[in-house]
From TrEMBL, chains A, B:
This is Uncharacterized protein. One of its GO terms (cellular component) is chloride channel complex. InterPro entries: CBS_dom_sf (IPR046342), Cl-channel_core (IPR014743), Cl_channel_volt-gated (IPR050970), ClC (IPR001807). Keywords: CBS domain, Chloride, Chloride channel, Ion channel, Ion transport, Membrane, Repeat, Transmembrane, Transmembrane helix, Transport. It comes from the Eukaryota. It comes from Mola mola (Ocean sunfish).
Length: 646, 646
């Protein structure tokens, strides 16, 4: 006696669809060009068969996901470069007219930010922010269809282009939204794959995990760190069946992104995005490892300070009535005002001259990663980047210090902007500046002979900038993949060991005492149902007993129910399946496919994985509620030995 | 009415232990030097407190694991280098006496192999082979104490040193046994940690996962690929809580390994093990990607052939009566004979002159990764490595072809040797030779103008060797981490994209049609209870219903059992806990801590992870066997919203 009610009968629907397709192939008197359509359809079906013969349809989906994301990334870079160049050109043309220059400098980013904010506010409000907290939540199994719509894709793409075109004055990045963009493409492609595939299994979960990897990979052309990032943001366990698709898709994305750059004539061949030329003979002295470790600790401490300010402002914007009003109704105005304020501070004739504000984000990073020592080169006109940092004649270290102090609160303020924006790249650049400051100090100290004896090769401050960037961004996001990302971005594998050491130490400091990460703070502030981040704010949550969260009454049917009672139960319940119990209240029948009850007819592989995953010693097995036996590891081993016997 | 029988009452034991410790501190009239001992103990306790204040004791364990493995790795490299040099010196001294040279060339490795085989046969038979299949099985949750004993550690270390000292004639490697060695150290350290730790939670599972990462990391000084390797060999899900420990321990191991190399004077600073000097300006032309893809497909095809031969010889040694007798009783003799045979073939005055047999494994790899083109340099005496490959005056490509043909069956034969040995490095070198052959062909074709027009920079055959090494070893082991390992070993990040592409394609070919990998074949041959590998040999296994593997009768107690019945049940059963049922056979009481039954008092986080991991829609909850309700995603979300309300 088994009762199973499938309210939306998928299989029947599918059958009717396929039969309809067949009918279309044979004859359909209403539509024109019957023969052409039929031939075309047959060709398409043949193509599908041929493609499906080489590998599963989903693999084409993974490849398409990588390539599409790379195309989007390339297009965005292309248009942002044009917009930034236009701004620079206008600013140069107005040379001599200081007031006009001021307005050009401030109004351009202000307008762009206002446009981005009002655009996303009016078309798709869920397109604002980084998107990584939402993606994490979706990867943990919670469906949020708003965040995967095509409207959101469109809005986020245009809004992000505007934000990035506002340049280094608002100091925002691209990574987070790109991870979100690629998950949207992934969700769309997985729907397509399900349509085309023969066996209608759901691939959406897999596609989302893969898309998270592709986002980082095609943003920077860095496949391996993309996959590691995907491993890190996954809920609590990374399924190995996602591993190969992740790598495949990320490799496609990274390769396509770099090939587009080659074909567009930017670079001659595939190479790292921020390629550096560190001296290869002696990248660093072994004892410098200790200084790198110190840098890691410093980055961890600064990240704690930054994250505290960030949490404070998130709280403030939610409690201050003026902010609440501005952020709910006047998003465009607010964004424009904040951008204007930030831009007026960075105006090159004011404080901006002490913080290299004329450089774009990319140029900032490239200048910070420069291998030469600035403090000794400040009078050498041939070295371009350091000139920007000492344009006012002040020492480089002072410029770096001003940059660090100002950008700290400017970054915190920029986080409140309600537009699509990433926060990884700014943090990465900030860390690079922090590392550079220490590196310059060390280089200066060593060149003036404080640490005498090793004068043959000078200290490379660029290496410290690299380690600082990885360590600070890793500490802020509580991840280790920035270490690998820094290496892949610059192509400097020689510094792998110190970068990894600094990142590990910075993470240790940042994660101590259950502090929430940057994304955790946003998750909590946005009230996203993400257990790991919520557990940091409310440590008792994971240990809440099931009894406290259980729904008191569920619809259930008696074994001896009459047809009328069944009818009533179906009408009352919103569930697709209703459990049947006998007169003792004892569970009588459940469908195994969709409900995970440790039932008699479970498959062996499921038992194996439950024993492994939950680190269980014994599994009790019930058949229709009654205990029929138990499974322990020795039993599993026994099965293996029986199999081997044949 | 709940009954719980803990046969080994841990808590009570612990309490008595701590009270005993306290008593020791106060007074113990029998033992001498009471005061000194008391002071020492107090100091140690204080130290433990101080250390525990900075971070958990397990983190010191992870650091120690990395450093100890690195020390072992360095010591082994050191002694192997000495032994190889001694052999070379002797061979050189005997120059002119061809017969003596022959005996020196053949008997040295034969004796070493015989010693290694009989040593491991007599002391610890489970120390033979690679160890990776066994480690995989242990990571999947099955305990095999034989494989983690200290005797095994000792035997494996000495045996492996002998095997490696036999050099490139027997052509065996170090990686696999090192992963095994590090898991043994890990198991020992986890026992130590459990002794020292305050809260006696089991950390052995975590330590084993970490140890798998450390093995590769300290073998090559490559931390990131070590972690990726650990992710890949894990059963089916990689737990994120292992991620940071893995990286930390792998970084410690890699750093220590490289620092030892620096301090021993081998190298000036921390750098890649097989550092190459590829031209950085234009590493490869974008269209060469297609050639790299072709190389990947070729490597995949050759790997299928190699794996087929490997499976055949594994089957042959298990069915052929002569082999069975040799391999059970005369392991030493067999190993010596095979090594003698292999060595006589590679004797430099015979076939060996066509296959660069005078180079060690390391020199072979370095020569193959050389960036210059050999075919055009063959008359240039200043280029050392290519000289070895064309010492007989024959063209380089012919030497490479002979090398590939001979080594194929020699490798297969070497796999039957019953001694501690790794099979990764040989496969890696073989792949490099395969890539080199293609690379030399392409370089020759392009230099003679077949692909004219791009004459300004020549093709780099070393890049093909690198991609071939990664692709072939990845295809043989069905993993992707060799791609990253190849990059970390050589420091050539510029070739990341083509190496990854080649590895992915080679894997696609090798994994098609559910073919077992190298380690899968060994797992099946050794009858290890490892589900993923067994599933490839017997595809129906994972879908076997639970009912078929259930033990028919389990000891259970009636709710109304008399004390005598309880006593009997306890005496009969070998389980530590006995379920209690009521008169309907309905499950009445189970302890939640050790038995995973979806019970009323489960914690919220467990429910969350079960819903996520098993991709379930609904969980039915039973309290004492009776259905009390069900949990779906909306309920979980509801909990979140309640939490957020406060």
């Amino acid at each position: 006696f088994t009762l199973e009610i499938n309210k939306n009968n998928w299989e029947g629907e599918n059958q009717s669809k396929t039969s309809r397709n067949k009918n279309l192939l044979i004859a359909d008197p209403v539509k024109p060009c019957q023969r052409t359509r039929a031939v075309l359809k047959e060709c398409l079906l043949k193509l599908r068969y041929c493609l499906g013969h080489v590998c599963g349809m989903e693999w084409y989906g993974f490849a398409a996901l990588g390539i599409l994301t790379a195309i989007l990334s390339f297009l965005m870079d292309f248009s942002v470069t044009k917009l930034l160049r236009a701004h620079q050109w206008l600013y140069m043309k107005l040379d001599g007219h200081i007031l006009l220059q001021f307005f050009c400098w401030t109004l351009y980013p202000a307008c762009l930010c206002a446009v981005a904010a009002s655009f996303s506010h009016n078309i798709c409000p869920s397109s604002t922010g980084s998107g990584i907290p939402e993606v994490r939540t979706m990867l943990a199994g919670i469906t949020m269809p708003d965040y995967l719509s095509l409207t959101n894709l469109f809005t986020k793409f245009l809004g992000l282009t505007c934000t990035l075109a506002a340049g280094s004055t608002v100091f925002l990045g691209k990574v987070g939204p790109f991870v979100h963009l690629s998950t949207m493409i992934g969700a769309y492609l997985s729907k397509l794959c399900t349509l085309v595939q023969d066996n209608k299994e759901k691939a959406s979960g897999k596609m989302l995990v893969v898309a998270a990897a592709v986002g980082v990979a095609s943003c920077f052309g860095a496949p391996v760190s993309g996959v590691l990032f995907s491993v890190e943001v996954m809920c609590s366990h990374f399924a190995l069946r996602h591993y190969c698709p992740c790598f495949f898709s990320a490799a496609c994305g990274a390769l396509a992104f770099r090939l587009f750059s080659v074909w567009s004539g930017d670079i001659e061949t595939l190479q790292a995005l921020f390629k550096t030329n560190f001296p290869t003979a002696l990248p660093f002295y072994p004892l410098e490892i200790l200084l790198f470790a110190l840098l890691g600790l410093l980055c961890g401490a600064v990240s704690c300070c930054y994250l505290f300010c960030h949490r404070w402002i998130l709280q403030f914007t939610k409690t201050n009535p003026i902010f609440i009003k501005m952020l709910t109704t006047e998003k465009g105005l607010y964004s424009g005002m904040v951008a204007f304020f930030l831009a007026s501070l960075t105006f090159p004739e004011s404080v901006g001259q002490h913080m290299a504000s004329q450089l774009t984000m990319k140029q900032l990073l490239i200048s910070l990663l420069d291998s030469g020592q600035w403090s000794s080169q400040s009078h050498n006109a041939s070295v371009q980047p350091s000139l920007e940092w000492s344009s006012s004649g002040s020492p480089v270290c002072l410029s770096l210090a001003v940059f660090l102090l100002m950008k700290m609160w400017m970054l915190v303020l920029a986080c409140t902007l309600p537009l699509p924006a990433g926060f990884f790249m700014p943090v990465f650049v900030y860390g690079a500046a922090l590392g550079r400051l220490l590196g310059e100090g060390v280089a200066y100290a060593s060149s003036t002979g404080v640490t005498s004896g090793q004068q043959q090769a000078s200290i490379n401050p660029g290496g410290y900038a690299l380690a600082g960037a990885a360590a600070f961004s890793g500490a802020v996001t509580h991840t280790l993949s920035p270490a690998l990302l820094a290496i892949e971005l610059t192509g400097q594998l020689s510094h792998a060991a110190p970068v990894l050491a600094a990142t590990l130490l910075a993470n240790a400091v940042a994660r101590s005492r259950q502090r929430p990460s940057f994304y955790d703070a946003i998750s909590i502030s946005k009230r996203l149902p993400h257990l790991p981040s919520l557990a940091k704010a409310c440590p008792s949550l994971p240990f809440t007993p099931l009894g406290q969260v259980l729904r008191a009454k569920s619809v259930q049917l008696q074994k001896a129910a009459t047809p009328l009672e069944v009818q009533q139960a179906v009408n009352t319940s919103t569930e697709t399946q209703i459990p049947v119990v006998d007169s003792h209240g004892l569970l009588y029948s459940v469908s195994i496919s969709s409900q995970k009850y440790m039932d008699f007819s479970f498959a062996f592989s499921q038992v194996h994985s439950i024993l492994t995953l939950l680190e269980a010693e014994t599994l009790l097995v019930a058949e229709r509620g009654r205990l029929v036996g138990l499974i322990t590891w020795p039993d599993v081993l026994n099965v293996f030995s029986i199999i081997y016997m044949y």
